[in-house]
Amino acid sequence: MSLVANHTLFFTNMLSLEWRIFYTCVATIIINLPFGYLRGGLQKLSLCWFIAIHAPVPLVILIRQFHSLELTWSLAPFLLGSFFMGQFLGRKIWSVWPYRKSQYSCIFKKNN
């Protein structure tokens, strides 16, 4: 049994569906910004690169459940679009202001 599924919070019911979708999309973008930024400094298609893309997915699911939104075909473009927009903007921020004082690398990297 899900911890969030049957227990909607009192103030989320007061918001209209449009506002709940809007807040969910904004939160999805904000959550994906640091992961997109982290992805900017990693080697493309490496294990850590995939982790940086997929790690925020459970957080986005929790936010969607927090706003009591079911994943439907009409909601999916908004959520996927905001997910990719957050990743894209985080990557663009890294290309403008990269953190290069000490190069970070993947913790799963093989040592030769």
TrEMBL record:
<keyword id="KW-0812">Transmembrane</keyword>
<keyword id="KW-1133">Transmembrane helix</keyword>
<protein>
    <submittedName>
        <fullName>Uncharacterized protein</fullName>
    </submittedName>
</protein>
<keyword id="KW-0472">Membrane</keyword>
<feature type="transmembrane region" description="Helical">
    <location>
        <begin position="20"/>
        <end position="38"/>
    </location>
</feature>
<feature type="transmembrane region" description="Helical">
    <location>
        <begin position="45"/>
        <end position="65"/>
    </location>
</feature>
<feature type="transmembrane region" description="Helical">
    <location>
        <begin position="71"/>
        <end position="90"/>
    </location>
</feature>
